[in-house]
């Protein structure tokens, strides 16, 4: 089961979903520049993630389409929401992706030809990371509560569970080498999640 990987790679996963960035959103002390940098970069990430979702739609079994299309509908809303949040903060959308964002998007692009089981596991890990990360610090102070709710709400948590069972189903039918490669991607995702938080704090060095 893909959720077992969380315990098996506990240190890497903890670093992916626990970060001072999130604690400082919770207590409201986050530096505005760091938060804005995260916001602009995450929108760029979500554009890459949307294209990755489209790839899964092409390769998945028919029985997985409904969940994935529901996810894409949420991504449509999320991309518009990012534009609204950026405008509220007076931010320019046309920023260059920073290295951690470039690498994360490259990882997703690199999976476009991978077996569906690997894609499904990566897709689950990416959504699971934000679902967990934004809930971990507990209730967040406004305006960050809106961000915590986007990825921490009950419907999103249910969606992440469905993604886990779809990944499990695909992996159950996969050969051992494919399962191994999905596990390796899970670790890469965890590492990139950590770097993405770090990037918000220290743009120049990430
Ligand atoms: C970096 N990871 C990152 N951004 C996101 N929006 C998600 C995961 C979840 O969609």
Describe it for me?
This protein has ten helices and no strands. It has helices at 4-8, 10-17, 20-26, 32-59, 65-88, 99-110, 116-133, 144-152, 154-172, 176-201. The mean pLDDT is 96. The protein is mainly alpha-helical. The site of 4-amino-5-hydroxymethyl-2-methylpyrimidine has 10 residues, from helix 4, helix 7 and helix 10.
How many beta strands in the DSSP annotation?
0
Mean pLDDT: 96
How many helices in DSSP terms?
A: 10
Instruction: Give Rg in angstroms.
Output: 16 Å
What share of residues are in beta strands? under 5%
Give the cofactors and ligands.
4-amino-5-hydroxymethyl-2-methylpyrimidine
Gross geometry? globular
Q: Characterize the quaternary organization of these chains.
A: single chain
Helical residue percent band: over 70%
**Which parts are unreliable, with pLDDT below 50 for 5 consecutive residues or more?**
none
Please state the structural category.
mainly alpha
Order of helices and strands: HHHHHHHHHH
- Terminal CA distance reads 32 Å
Major beta sheet summary: none
Provide key terms for this protein.
single chain, 206 residues, mainly alpha, 0% strand, binds 4-amino-5-hydroxymethyl-2-methylpyrimidine
List the helices and strands and how they pair.
Blueprint: H1 4-8, H2 10-17, H3 20-26, H4 32-59, H5 65-88, H6 99-110, H7 116-133, H8 144-152, H9 154-172, H10 176-201
Bound molecules: 4-amino-5-hydroxymethyl-2-methylpyrimidine.
Short description:
Helices cover 76% and strands 0% of the residues.
